[in-house]
Amino acid sequence: xxxxxxxALAAALLAAALGxxxxxxxPGPAEAxxxxxxxxxxxxxxxxxxxxREVAGAIWTPQLAxxxxxxxxxxxxxxxxxxxxxxxxEAFALVPRPPAFFPxxxxxxxxxxxxxxxxxxxxxxxxxxxxxVATAANYRSAVEMASMGI
Length: 150
Hints:
- The chain is built from 7 helices and no strands.
- Helix 1 packs antiparallel against helix 6 and helix 3 (46-59) runs parallel beside helix 6 (105-122).
- The chain has helices at residues 4-25, 29-40, 46-59, 62-66, 72-90, 105-122, 126-147.
- It has 150 residues and is mostly helical.
- 75% of the residues lie in helices and 0% in strands.
């Protein structure tokens, strides 16, 4: 049974996701091209890199994340890993997430604190922790290689 904090945080993440979903759901060709240029090719700012490092630290450890270069490739992998953790924990959550929701770089840049706090809460719950630990194991090598530019 999820804790009250985990349930409240899941509801907040769901509300944030639903609030941002319509704009990203049907981008036009020009909008998609701009989004690709700005999101995929632009490395995060130093402040955004610190936020990403905190999210990564909540998945792995702060010490491990401190040594990674938080470039756009790492950011994309963190977005994918975040999506997998949210989908995995969906089975345990009282509040379901939209099935087509994919938390990409823009989502992480805007909601980094909520995501970090959510991962910290779910790590304390054995059921949710399985989602975080499995995803951390599956993505660590890819994140480390992306951090090194490989």
